Each structure stands twice: as C-alpha cells, then as structure tokens.
Amino acid sequence: MQLERLCLDLRRRTPWEALDLGLVVLRHWYRPVYRAWFATVLPFALIVSILLWQWPGVAVIVVWWLKPLFDRVLLKVYAEASFGTPPSVKDVWRALPGLVRNSGLLRGLTVGRFSLARSFHLPVVQLEGQRGREAAARRRVLDSRTRGSAVWLTYVCAHFSAFLQISLILAIELLRPQEVAPFFDWAALFRGESEPWLEVLTDLAYVAGESLVEPFYVAAGFTLYLNRRNELEGWDIELGFRRLSRRIEAESEGRGKTARKAALLAVFLCFAGFSWLQAPREAFADPPAASVAETGEAKRAIREVLADPVFGRQVEEWGWRYRDSKKESRKHDSDILKMLATIGEWMAKGFRGFSFAAAAVLVTALIVLLYRYHEKWLIRSPAARRVPETLFGLDVRPESLPTDPVAAARRHLAAGEHAAALSLLYRGALVSLIHRAYVDFRPGDTEGNCLERVRGRIDAAGESYFAELLQAWKLTAYAGAAPPVAQLSDLCTRWPEHFAG
Predict the structure, then answer these.
(1) What is the DSSP letter of 484?
(2) What is the mean pLDDT of the chain?
(3) Residue among 209, 207, 206, 225 nearest 75 (CA)
C-alpha cells in the first residue's frame, strides 16, 4: 500500500473521533460519492418498483435487503478517492460486475446482513481480499476495543434513517391545506390497507432517508477501519520516518561538497590520531598510583552504601508455617485459600448488590407510602389549616348546624323528610371530622374519597358508622330509595356516640 499517496491525515484517534472523520470525508468527496450512489441506487429502485408495482411494500424490502451491494459501491469510491483518484460514474458501472463477484456479496446478503458492524467489516473482504477463516480471524483482531463503536454507528444510523422517513411524511402532512383530507392514515398504512400510491410515497421517503444516511454510514465505517489499522500497524509512524528520510536526503544532496571536504578532514584527523597512539606510553604516563583495593576505598564505599536507610534496614516478618511441610501440600493449601478467597469475594459482591437493591426497594416503598398516606401521617396544626366553609354544596360551618342535630333530624324524619334528616347527620359528621379529627377534605372528593380520608383518623366503630351513614346518604340523595325508617332512627340514635360535642 502506497501510504504516502493517502490523502487522509493519519494520527492516533479515539474510535469516536474516527467516526467524526467519516463525516469530514463525506463532505470532502460528496460529489463523486453521490454521483455513484444515485447512478446505481435510483435505477435499481426504479426497476424493482416497476417489476413489483402491485406490491410496493415488497419492493422496498428488496431495496433494503440489497443495500450491501450499494455499500460496496460507496466503499470503492471512498477507497480510491483516499488515494487521490475518485472514480467516475463509468468506472463505477464497469467495476459493478467485479463487486458482485469478488467482494463477498453472498455472505453480505445472508449471514453478514444481520451484522451490527457491517460497514466496519466490509473493507476486510473488499479491500484486503480476506475469505473464510482468515477473514474471521482478521475481524476478531479489528473488533478489539472498536466493535462497540461500530455497533453504535449501525444503531444510530438505522434510527436516524427511520426518523428522516417519518419526518418527510409529516412535512407533507404539514404542507397539506386544511380543506384537503389527510393523505396518510397511519393505522391503515401499518396494516397494509392504504392506497398503493401512498405506499409508493412512503417508499420514496425511505429512499430519500437512506440517501442521506447510508453514505455517511459507509464513510464512518471506512475511517474507523483505517484508524484501527493505523493503531495495529503504525502507519503514522511509518509515514513520519519516510518524511524524515526524504528530508535528510534532500539536505544531504544540497551539501555534497561540504560533506566531501568534511570526509577528507576526518580522514586526516584519524591518521594523526593513529600516529599519536603509536607513540611510547612510558613517555606520557603518570606515576603509578595505589590501587583501590590496596587503599581500602572499595570496602569503605560498600559500608557507606549499606549504611544508607534504603539498603541497611532490617525487616522482620512474622507468619505461620507448617513444620516438615512439603511443597505439594503448601501448593494445595494455597489453591484452597485462593478458591476460598474467590468465593468470599463473590459473596461480598452479592451481599453488596443485595444491600443496594434492598435499600432501593425500601426507599421506593417509603416514597409510595408517604405519597399514599401523607394526609394521615402529616397532621397539620389547626392554626396552619385552611378550614373550608362548604363541601360538595353542603354548608360545613359549625354555626350552620342546629344546637341539637339529632333532635332536628328526628323532626325531619317524623315529617317524612328522609333526605333532610340524613343531610343534617352527614353535615354534622363532616363538621366533627374537620374540626375535631382534623381531616382535610377536598372540594372534588366523592363519598368514597371521604371514607378513605377518614380511615385511621377515628376509631373503628366511628369508621363503621360513617360508612353506614354514607351508604344511606347515597341511596337517598342519588337513588331516591331511602332506607327503612327503623334504620334511619337507629342512625340518629348512634350519631352522638361518635360525632357529638
């Protein structure tokens, strides 16, 4: 591979930076890329739509399934443009039979069609020519620390293409005059019961969305592949050495004469140095000195080194050892200890996870209970409460009640006014609950809500009586079917036990 012809700036990048480089590549070579894309995809989609004009849904599935073929066309454009020679439309059409035969298209349309890293693995087959086990081994090497980014690329591009398709359909609906009936019936569209021309329109929206997303998808996969190969093979380092060698060669050629003169001078100096070395050593030698061993310098240096705290300290280690133990038993014991340590570590992790889960469940349960029973638990002081004057159309002021509500209710009951008698008892109970039990009723509460708010705020007998009073009130006020007079009289008799005072 002629790396010096590569038009991309090779340097160490993270996988996400390599994906961003794909967008830069698409912007730089968008003309040859889109010429090749529209010269192949549009005629093919048109032919498929004509052949399957009665089944537009099947036509778009066929176009979608054969996208790996057009990905190979895009990769050819990117690969050749990276070396400064982007192919023309004629070159693409001439290379199309070879792409069908020699680019692993059969695997791309079967097993590889469902790969979540298609654009990242595509250069392995098309550009490197790897097949079979060699290709699988090559993909495993490339996938290390990079496959996750390739999978996210596929995931994001697939969703972005769907969003673009739906957005184009919604744009048509937004531009529709209000006097015109809606074009799209979404329910009928998903059931396959819409008109054929509307399905054709959705197919065109799909082709438009793929035309915007698929060139970037292939470009990002290609740049991610180049970045991974640069990490594995050190292309940037190789190119740096090549540039350095060319610069050195250029500088050496410009200074040829100076180099020859320097070489002659070096030869002369070497000759003079050899002549000096041949002179008798006794003429220049210094008087012999005492050896290091004789003066004791070596021992003194060793003592100084050992006196340093780093080298001279003594460390005592305490531990248990078996007497007369063999190496095999110690190794066996160490294996058991390692196994026990591993089991203990897993148990600790499990207990920690269980503790976190239990804490989360307890906090959630506490929040739910606070939300559900906050009115029962958080009793506000009478000074901080806003006491209503009317509830459900009933006057609940204490002064609106007669001095003896039970006597007044009996008079209404004797006159045959059952609803009026129950109204007095009901209002009296509400007044007692508001001002004595500090129950906060709300204007929108129903009888069931009232009973729910009373629970837990008074004794069980009072709750049972209030539920019976509510049932009698609902039958009389809403159904017009008052309970028997004896039951109403019994309600009047028992009312003071719970709400009088």
Answers:
(1) P
(2) 77
(3) 225
Cα-Cα-Cα-Cα torsion 115, 116, 121, 125, nearest 10 degrees, comes to 20
Q: How confident is the model at residue 178 (pLDDT cuts 50, 70, 90)?
A: low
Tokens standing for 371? Answer: 């939300």
- Provide φ and ψ at 394, rounded to 5°: -105, 135
φ/ψ of 257, rounded to 5, equals -65, -40
86 contacts 32 by C-beta, under 8 angstroms: yes
Over residues 254-262, mean pLDDT:
61
Q: What single letter denotes the amino acid at residue 449? A: N
Task: Report how far residue 122's alpha carbon sits from residue 108's, in angstroms, rounded to the nearest whole number.
Answer: 9
Note the pLDDT of residue 308: 66
At residue 214, φ and ψ (nearest 5 deg) are -65, -40
Q: How confident is the model at residue 476 (pLDDT cuts 50, 70, 90)?
A: confident
Q: How far apart are the first and last CA of the chain?
A: 101
State the SS3 of 222-240: HHHHHHHHHHHHCHHHHHH
Assigned CATH class of 388-499: mainly alpha
Name residue 167's amino acid.
S
Q: Is the pLDDT of residue 34 over 60?
A: yes
Q: How large is the angle between the packed helices 118-126 and 132-143, nearest 10 degrees?
A: 140
Strand segments (E) across 198-275: none
Which single residue is written with the structure tokens 């998808």?
217
b/e per residue, 205-235, with b = 16+ CB within 10 A?
bbbebbbebbbbbbbbbbbbbbbbbbbeeeb
The answer to whether the beta carbons of residues 4 and 242 sit under 8 Å apart is: yes
Q: Is the dihedral of CA 72, 73, 76, 82 positive or negative?
A: negative
Q: Where in the chain are the domains?
A: 3-233, 242-277, 388-499
- Which helix H or strand E contains 394, and what residues bound it? strand 394-395
Residue 188 has pLDDT above 80, yes or no: no
For residues 265 and 252, give the distance between their C-alpha atoms in angstroms, rounded to a whole number. 18
In angstroms, the CA 4 to CA 239 distance is 7
User: Which structure tokens are listed for 407?
Assistant: 């006597």
The C-alpha angle with vertex 272 and arms to 268 and 276, in degrees rounded to 5, equals 170
Write out the two tokens for 433.
């609950």
**Both tokens assigned to 437:** 């039990």
User: Would you place residue 217 in the very low, low, confident or very high pLDDT band (cuts 50, 70, 90)?
Assistant: very high
Burial 102-139, CB ≥16 within 10 A → b, else e: ebbbebbeeebeebebbbbbbbbbbbeebeeeebeebb
Which one, of 72, 66, 77, 85, lies nearest residue 25 by Cα?
77
Residue 339 Cα distances to 334, 344, 345, 459, angstroms: 9, 9, 10, 60
- What pLDDT was estimated at residue 216? 92
CA–centroid distance for 69 within its chain? 30
